[in-house]
Recover the amino acids of this structure.
């Protein structure tokens, strides 16, 4: 899995690619919580367009990030979910809990 | 309702969670070994197992959505072995066996994929295998829920000092017929 951070308008976009599983979710968690809790970025976007797979440990990290963003009064926004990732969000009944957009343009305009 | 081979269904037909299957007219019950993997409790191995199981589902003509569900279930099961049975300790043995199930009973048949995971870790605690309510927003506890949502059979057992998890997914009738023709 790869994580690339981009800064736009004082916000952060984390471009994720590959598989987010037990081996790689700790790296995503660290990057995500670093932006939310340490840097206190008001809007953090996760670009999941190139994520082929996410497991329950990845979902747990996203939930942790969401809770941290709520605590900080900031926003965590997801976009570009593949069919596989969307299925896992639905199975977890989280698709209505997270802010989810189709693409980057819609996400940035939100 | 879940089919268990060798159990007669009162209606005289073979039934599964997904329906009644027409007979291919030539098969008796058999279980064919597709894949046997011996690996260590290293999270880096998960990607390899996912790829192998995905290929097994393709061989049996599972639809893409069901293939993803099977792969997800095996991945979650393995992650649970690494995290709970071996408590994160790497280098411990895990065996993954995939079998093609094909059976006929009362002139109807079905086919499916059985995946058995075996480990020598601490005994699984049945009290912790109930999953959790999804109404609560908190990290963790989803793996078992994914397995139960996706698979037709999920069975835990402890045999000869080893944990064994058996996962089975049956093919829907149309795909089942295609799998039989492809043999």
């Amino acid at each position: 899995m790869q994580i690339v951070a981009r800064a736009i308008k004082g916000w952060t976009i984390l471009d994720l690619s590959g598989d987010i599983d037990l081996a790689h979710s700790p790296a995503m968690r660290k990057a995500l919580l670093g932006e939310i809790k340490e840097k206190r970025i008001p809007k953090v976007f996760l670009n999941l367009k190139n994520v082929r797979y996410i497991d329950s440990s990845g979902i747990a990290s996203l939930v942790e990030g969401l809770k941290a963003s709520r605590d900080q009064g900031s926003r965590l926004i997801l976009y570009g979910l593949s069919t596989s990732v969307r299925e896992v969000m639905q199975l977890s009944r989280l698709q209505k809990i997270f802010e989810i957009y189709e693409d980057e343009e819609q996400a940035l305009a939100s | 309702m879940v089919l268990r081979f060798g159990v007669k269904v009162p209606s005289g037909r073979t039934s599964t969670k997904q329906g009644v299957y027409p007979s291919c007219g030539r098969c008796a019950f058999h279980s064919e070994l597709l894949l046997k993997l011996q690996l260590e409790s290293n999270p880096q191995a998960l990607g390899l197992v996912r790829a192998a199981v995905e290929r097994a589902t393709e061989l049996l003509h599972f639809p893409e959505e069901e293939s993803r569900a099977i792969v997800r279930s095996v991945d979650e099961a393995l992650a649970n072995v690494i995290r709970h049975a071996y408590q994160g300790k790497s280098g411990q043995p895990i065996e993954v066996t995939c079998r093609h199930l094909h059976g006929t009973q009362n002139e109807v048949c079905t086919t499916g994929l059985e995946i058995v995971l075996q480990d020598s870790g601490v005994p699984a605690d049945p009290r912790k295998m109930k999953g959790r309510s999804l109404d609560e927003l908190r990290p963790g506890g989803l793996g078992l829920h994914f397995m139960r949502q996706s698979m037709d059979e999920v069975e835990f057992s402890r045999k000869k000092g080893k944990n064994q998890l058996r996962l089975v997914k049956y093919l829907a009738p149309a795909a089942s017929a295609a799998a039989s023709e492809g043999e």
In short: Chain B has four helices and seven strands.
